[in-house]
Design brief:
The protein is of the alpha+beta class. It has 12 helices and 18 strands. Among the domains are: 129 residues, no CATH class; 95 residues, PDZ domain (Pdz3 Domain, Roll), CATH 2.30.42. The strands form 3 sheets. Strands 1-2-3-6-5-4 form a 6-stranded antiparallel beta barrel. Strands 7-8-9-12-11-10 form a 6-stranded antiparallel β-barrel. This is Serine protease HTRA2, mitochondrial.
Length: 450
């Protein structure tokens, strides 16, 4: 065929051209067969997903054993036409397809289809490799997208947190029962535990349960009522410990984790942020002239004495009290460090003197605190002053008299109560105490024998 007709050939005809071109491979001369095979493979190698006009022309030219002079009108590149001329020029000159010997026709029926199929498969493989994506198998699982920073901190510190139970005699049956409970944490591997003073300061029998389930009888060693800190000693060695750190670098908004055993539920974890680094005791109506860390991490009954840790696993505070949901307070670790240092220099001095007690934990209601509580709870009583009872020890004088958490003490002995200091003074004068409280919006009069 004329080379000008090459431009009308489509890619669909490529396979048929390969079959036809394969017939030339049957030429008797090995040298000619070699040249033809090289030309065909060169044409196929340059063929992409859609064969170009030049590639089709090269294949079709294999059918033309007698090529005329190349016309100047041909659109094929010069290199392509040169290849066509070289392919069809043998040592004996051009030959016509009509003059092929009968042996060539017999060879065509034997080899043409096989060779054409081979070349078509090669073309198909070439086309597939140009567009098929490469997929690499991975043997390692993808990294987790979960944020486990709180779980990591808890895993590192939980073994040092302990559950503390205070045992006493039932006032009627005289049986030994748990009258209170709290939390603590190991600060020395030889069995020294730090907790709140109001948890163990009454000197009753203390039972300590470790994270691994072992139980020990504890002995109260040092008590500081001003900072509400105490130490308990158990007969154990090689215990995991927690490190206390100074809070001078602590900032509002930092994540913290409160650990302890609220409501006797061992190893309970709550998380929150630091609301205030230095909440003064005057703002809370407490007379001990201390600063507290305010957090929104939930601290409930039984959490007292447990650690408040940062995400590095260091203790920044000791949980001490909760006012309402979202408002809890912890003693800064700075006070605990000073207390431990002083306690190591002297023995316990707080157990010899008899002291009157009610068995409650209380909080002075300041105007700002009253406003915040009323915003959180519309049912909160409309008072201007008083003392909020937020914990009552089981079996204590206050518990036996009927005082309950949430009650507001407004009068003692007929005198208005402005702060918790008024209650401490009344304990030294009045016995028993005539207390007026607001219980769920209703005023009640109670008689308490300290």
């Amino acid at each position: 065929p004329d080379l000008s007709s090459c431009t009308t050939l489509s890619a669909v005809k490529t396979g048929w051209l390969c079959v036809s071109a394969a017939a030339v491979l049957c030429h008797k001369r090995r040298r000619t067969r070699t040249k033809v095979l090289q030309a065909v493979l060169r044409c196929v190698h340059e063929t992409t997903a859609m064969p170009s006009t030049a590639s089709v022309c090269r294949l079709s030219s294999l059918l033309c054993r007698r090529l005329p002079a190349v016309s100047s009108r041909t659109t094929a590149p010069a290199s392509t036409l040169l290849s066509c001329k070289l392919v069809h020029s043998g040592p004996s000159g051009p030959r016509s397809l009509q003059t092929q010997s009968s042996s060539s026709h017999r060879c065509l029926s034997r080899y043409a289809i096989g060779a054409g199929a081979l070349l078509s498969a090669y073309l198909f493989w070439r086309q597939r490799t140009t567009w098929m994506p490469t997929i690499f198998a991975s043997t390692t699982p993808p990294p987790s997208t979960r944020f486990n920073f709180i779980a990591d901190a808890v895993e590192k510190t939980a073994p040092a947190v302990v559950y503390i139970e205070i045992l006493g005699r039932h006032p009627f049956t005289q049986q030994q029962i748990a009258v209170s409970n709290g939390s603590g944490f190991v600060v020395r591997s030889d069995g020294l535990i730090l907790t709140n003073a109001h948890v163990v300061a009454d000197g009753r029998l203390v039972t300590v349960k470790l994270h691994d389930g072992r139980q020990f009888t504890g002995k109260v060693e040092a008590v500081d009522r001003r900072s509400d800190l105490a130490t308990v000693r158990i007969a154990a060695k090689g215990l995991p410990t927690l490190a206390l750190t100074h809070t001078d670098q602590l900032r509002p908004g930092e994540w913290v984790v409160a650990m302890g055993s609220p409501l006797a539920l061992n190893n309970t974890i709550t998380a929150g942020v630091v609301s205030s680094v230095h909440r003064s005791s005057k703002e809370l109506g407490i007379h001990n002239e201390m600063d507290y860390i305010q957090t929104d991490a939930a601290i409930n009954f039984g959490n007292s004495g447990g650690p408040l840790i940062n995400l590095d696993g260091n203790v920044i505070g000791i949980n001490t009290m909760k006012v309402t949901a979202g408002i809890s307070f912890a003693i800064p670790a700075d006070y605990a460090l000073n207390f431990l240092q002083e306690a190591s220099k002297k023995s316990q001095e707080d157990t010899s003197a008899d002291r009157w007690y009610l068995g409650i934990t209380m909080l002075t209601l300041t105007p700002s605190l009253i406003m915040e509580l009323q915003q959180r709870d519309p049912m909160f009583p409309h008072v201007t002053s008083g003392v909020l009872v937020w914990k009552v020890m089981l079996g204590s004088p206050a518990n036996l008299a009927g005082l309950q958490p949430g009650d507001i003490i407004v009068k003692i002995g007929g005198q208005d109560v402005k702060s918790s200091q008024d209650i401490y003074k009344a304990l030294e004068v009045w016995k028993p105490l005539d207390i007026e409280v607001i219980h769920r919006g209703t005023k009640k009069n109670l008689k308490v024998q300290p």
